Request: fold
Amino acid sequence: MAERGRFVTFEGIDGSGKSTQARRLADTLRAAGGEVVLTREPGGSPGAEEIRRLLVEGPPERWSAETEILLFTAARRDHLEKTVLPALARGATVISDRFADSTRVYQGAARGELRGLVDALHAQVIGHEPDLTFILDMDPDASLARGLARQSGEDRFEEFGAGFQARLRDGFRALASEFPGRCRLIDAARPEAEIAAEIAKLCGAEAP
Ligand code: ADP
Ligand code: TYD
Reply:
């Protein structure tokens, strides 16, 4: 299946504004015409949404980092097969709130030295990278306050605490240096509209 659409992902620590900015970019690109599929991980297909509930609910010690890698990768494979690749094949722009970089950072770096396992599984069963990745970067104390304020019942990862979030931030910044071709580091501690305008410009679109 030849890919034709553009695959854009948003990454960063919890509460950094990924969902907000993904939605704004989708609105901007839709207003300019063309099909946009806005999706998220873990989730984005019926099967992957079922796996999501296993991952985001319950106490932090529910899964080991190794088990998490397998569950996130299983969810990603289903999301790719059912949602991402068919949309790219028909020429749509796919915007995903998180993708494989989250596994590289959350399971591969911040929760143990498991990057080798993450990379091996990715190569075997995922094998796709985004065309463009926005890494929303900000102070973890401020983003944690935003995230917990939501009280969504999906706070398993937020509950690992501020030290964990600080390691994640370092991990995402390192990833931006590792993949400079597709990653753009965005200062996320600014007003929503200002961030949205920068992101739209980097996508070659005008924010409304
Ligand atoms: P994420 O998807 O990264 O967890 P969200 O987009 O859900 O983050 O945003 C987390 C919370 O912060 C939400 O309540 C949202 O309205 C708020 N928020 C998002 N962007 C900003 C911003 N630039 N400034 C202040 N608050 C924001
Ligand atoms: P998400 O719903 O994006 O959380 P938030 O909106 O708070 O940023 O993702 C749920 C949690 O799953 C989040 O804390 C990050 C974590 N996660 C991983 O640990 N590894 C992964 O591969 C993915 C996609 C998410």
Summary: The longest strand covers residues 7-12. Residues 65-89 form the longest helix (25 residues).
